[in-house]
Amino acid sequence: MRFTEIKRKKSLNSKISNTYGLDPDKLPVHIAIIMDGNGRWAKKKLLNRIKGHEKGADTVRMVVRTCREIGISVLTLYAFSTENWERPKTEVAALMMLLKKFLISEKKEMTDNNIRLNVIGQKKRLPADVQEEIQRAMNATCVNDGMLLNLALSYGSRAEILRAVRRIAADVKDGLQDIGHISEDNFASHLYTAGMPDPELLIRTSGEMRISNFLLWQIAYSEIHITQTLWPDFTKEELIRILNDFQSRERRFGRVLEE
Ligand code: IPE
Ligand code: IPE
Ligand code: MG
Predict the structure, then answer these.
(1) Which ligand is nearest to the CA of 154?
(2) Nearest ligand, CA of residue 152?
(3) Which of 70, 111, 113, 200 is the most buried (most CB within 10 A)?
(4) Where does residue 123 fall: left (phi above 0), alpha (psi -120 to 50 degrees), or beta otherwise?
(5) Please, is 256 exposed, middle or buried when counting C-beta atoms within 10 Å of its C-beta (0-12, 13-18, 19+)?
């Protein structure tokens, strides 16, 4: 199943949006999150960084559940970047183990809640056992259409853009694509996010004012929300507050809005 036809979803319970003071018609269809601050959370508590990642996994579960509950169609979580491979071997290994555990433990939750799992990034660089669990979870959830959960794993936006350029160049070389007809839509169809709407909202936790090689093409017009909260401390209440703030923003897309 391709990712076309991704539209605004209804919340699981029509009263939910009201309870949270949200306008269901103005919810973002796609939310992307840079989940940052696990290490600092652990350091503050004099714990090993790995403990921060473990606690961070609980926040992932909460955020997935909440987004599904209120009717978000696509949730993209930055879990591991191409640059993160440069971290100490022990930390990388711990992150891969946690990821595998997450994929196994959440398969049922995703199936029960009609969530489809997808991975964006260089899947082939991941350890073989993690790749296997990804495939299992993706197969088990491939017909679900309640929400699409994109995990960005070994993801880097520059690598993604280069991959698209290579694919288009190959099509041109093979006579399948005319240079004059390379459009923005056509280019986007060669990205990992092909067929998905761009995120309207990008959240980054733990205060860094940077994008760290995440979805450079796709966030051209996203609203950005940076919170000081460290990812393991991020709560449902804060997510709802951010969505309320998003709904109060005026998105102009370079235009002048009518008086
Ligand atoms: C985010 O937390 C998780 C990953 C990047 C895998 P960090 O591990 O980057 O935490 P800080 O930024 O060091 O606090
Ligand atoms: C971005 O966080 C990557 C993920 C959240 C997976 P980093 O902690 O790796 O980014 P920098 O080092 O602050 O730019
Ligand atoms: Mg970080």
Answers:
(1) 2
(2) 2
(3) 70
(4) alpha
(5) exposed
The single residue of 84, 114, 145, 233 carrying the catalytic annotation is: 84
**Four-CA torsion 139, 141, 147, 153, nearest 10 degrees:** -40
Tokens of 116: 């489809």
Length of the chain: 259
Domain segments of the chain: what residues?
33-244
36 is catalytic: yes
> 64-102: per-residue pLDDT in tens?
999 999 999 999 999 999 999 999 999 999 999 999 999
pLDDT tens per residue across span 43-72: 999 999 999 999 999 999 999 999 999 999
pLDDT tens profile 189-216: 999 999 999 999 999 999 999 999 999 9
CATH T-level assignment (fold) for domain 33-244: Undecaprenyl pyrophosphate synthetase (3.40.1180)
